């Protein structure tokens, strides 16, 4: 199993996914990527993943995403029902990585928001980070 959370994924190749597939032993791969070029390269590995019986979950998200999955997993281990799970996301106090997390988050600002609808890629400038101003 490979859980790839070591972004940023911008301008990178899906080498961890390639290695997971090539190993013939890894049956599950998860990443929290979001740049479209990285995802498109990953999707090109579909036939190889199927041939090696590797299930790949791409763009699972970090926050929200994997944090939600982990919270539900933790809640399932508790005795009794869990009625509410609340999340707060902070970028400070993360072992000194607060500034890096802000940088990674802001890499996408200014890019048009994208959406796939019925297999067609659409861009929405009006919903992009442009509304937030320029991030240097």
Textual characterization of the structure:
The protein is built from 5 helices and 5 strands, in the order βαβααβααββ. The protein is of the alpha/beta class. The strands form 2 sheets. It has a 3-stranded parallel sheet with strand order 1-2-3, covered by helices on one side. The longest helix has 12 residues, at 66-77. The model is unreliable at 130-136 (pLDDT under 50).
- Order of the strands making up the biggest sheet: 1-2-3
Alpha-carbon Rg, integer? 17 Å
Number of beta-strand segments = 5
> What's the tally of helices?
5
| Alpha-carbon distance between the two ends | 37 Å
Largest sheet: 3 strands, parallel
Helix and strand pattern: EHEHHEHHEE
What class do helices, strands and sheet pairing give?
A: alpha/beta
**Uncertain runs:** 130-136
Strand content: 5-15%
Average pLDDT rating: 78
Tell me the overall shape.
globular
Can you give the helix content as a percent range? 25-40%
Describe, in short, the structure shown:
This protein is an alpha/beta fold and 136 residues long.
Lay out the secondary structure:
Layout: E1 2-4, H1 15-23, E2 28-31, H2 36-43, H3 46-51, E3 55-57, H4 66-77, H5 98-106, E4 113-117, E5 120-124
Parallel strand pairs: 1-2, 2-3
Antiparallel strand pairs: 4-5
Descriptive tags:
136 residues; alpha/beta; single chain; disordered C terminus; two-stranded antiparallel ribbon; three-stranded parallel beta sheet
